[in-house]
Amino acid sequence: MKKAALLLAALATVTLGTPATAAPRLSAQSIIVNPVPTDLSVRVWVDRDPGGNGTPTYRVGEPIRIATTVNEDAYVYLFNVNPDGTTDQILPNHLSGTHYVRAGQTRTFPAPGDNFVFNVSGPRGLNKVLVIASRTELNLDQLSSYRAGDAFATVKPTTTPGFAQALSIVVNPVTQPVPQQNWTSDTVRYTVGR
């Protein structure tokens, strides 16, 4: 897994092996780690670092694109973790269509032809993009909600630990019917600089 980082503003207005019953673990590197091995894999990167191994720098106001791919058909969820600890839900949203990605398909957000762009915004610092891929659709009610007329959901927790805790509830096999081998995550990071 890679470390993650990203800060966006939308114009048009985020695995280590242990027993199968283990709970998701919080990690400084990747926000949340599935402790159960799975054959499902997902990869996320930003347009200035297609390899996803660096930490590219963007200036405030510059456009940014995020891409992801999965090795099996899966539902994909993208979150941006800002330097101040707040989180933005990138996908799903009401502008990008489906968040279901086919095996081997690369999806870019925003996609060519979408009627919006993502522009980097402040504050400056290290940002993280977290992708969760799941074989089954996740219930994000504990994590985010849409306000009337909004294209993007608002993430309810306002701190990174709060977000990680809420996300761990979403993928917890005790509270949700999501077997741990059915989801995985990846992260990428970037810096907002001058």
TrEMBL record:
Signal peptide (residue range): 1-22
Coiled-coil segments: none
Ranges of residues in domain DUF4384: 57-136
InterPro entries, per the entry: DUF4384
Pfam families attached to this UniProt entry: DUF4384
Record keywords, A-Z: Signal
Transmembrane segments: none
Name of the protein: DUF4384 domain-containing protein
Species this chain originates from: Deinococcus depolymerans
